[in-house]
Amino acid sequence: MNNDRTYSYNLEVARGTTVDGMYIPAGATILGRYEPASGGLRYVATGVRMNGRTYNLDATSEVIEDQKDPRDTSAGSIAEDAGIGAAGGAILGEVFGDADIEEIIGGAVAGGVAGNVTADRVVVVEPDQRITLYGS
User: Fold this and answer.
1) How many CA atoms lie within 13 A of 64 on its CB side?
2) pTM higher than 0.90 for the full model?
3) Residue 11: beta bridge partners?
4) Sign of the torsion formed by the C-alpha atoms of 11, 15, 19 and 24
5) Long-range own/partner contacts, residues 91-99 (CB < 8 A, 24 or more apart)
6) Cα–Cα–Cα angle for 112, 119, 67, rounded to 5 degrees
7) 100 Rama sector, left if φ>0, alpha if ψ -120 to 50, beta otherwise
8) How far apart are CA 52 and CA 136, in angstroms?
9) 35, 57, 66, 130 — which has fewest CB within 10 A?
10) What is the DSSP letter of 26?
C-alpha cells in the first residue's frame, strides 16, 4: 500500500483478546482503515462486529513501517534496470567512440543502483501478519 493514502480494510481477530476494556472473541471483525503516519501506515479501528452486532471501538496500531517496494527491488527488476543501464552505456560509448566492456558494465551498475535507490516506498502487510491494537 502507498504510504500516503488511506485504505479501508477489516481485520479478523485470530484469538480472543481485550482491547480498551472490551473482550473481543476470535472470529470477530475489526472495522477500520490504514492511515498515513510518519514512516508508514497505522491501522485505526473504529468498530468491531461480533455476535451479529456492531460496537464502537477506538484503537490504533503502532506504525507499520514502509519499505522499498519489493516489486522494484526484486532481482528481476534490478536486472531489468541494469539492462537498461547497459544499453545506455553502449549508446554513450557509441556517441563518444567505440563501446567497450567497461562502459557497458558501468552502465549496468548505474542502472541497477538507480532502480534500487528510486524504488517507491510502500507498506507491505502479509495476510497472516499480526497487528496489535491499543485503546486510545
Assistant:
1) 24
2) no
3) 30
4) positive
5) none
6) 125
7) beta
8) 25
9) 130
10) T
Q: Is 63's pLDDT higher than 70? A: yes
Cell of 121: 516506498
For 71-117, write each residue's pLDDT tens digit. 655 545 444 444 444 444 444 444 444 434 444 344 444 444 444 44
Quick one: 34 exposed, middle or buried, by C-beta within 10 A (0-12, 13-18, 19+)? Answer: buried
Grid coordinates belonging to 130: 499480526
Extract the C-alpha cell encoding 51. 455476535
Q: Which of 64, 59, 62, 37 is nearest to 46 (CA)?
A: 59
Alpha-carbon distance of 79 to 66, in angstroms, equals 23
Would you mind telling me the total number of residues written for the chain in this entry?
136
Q: What are phi and psi of 113, to 5 degrees?
A: -65, -45
- The Cα 136–Cα 121 span in angstroms is 28
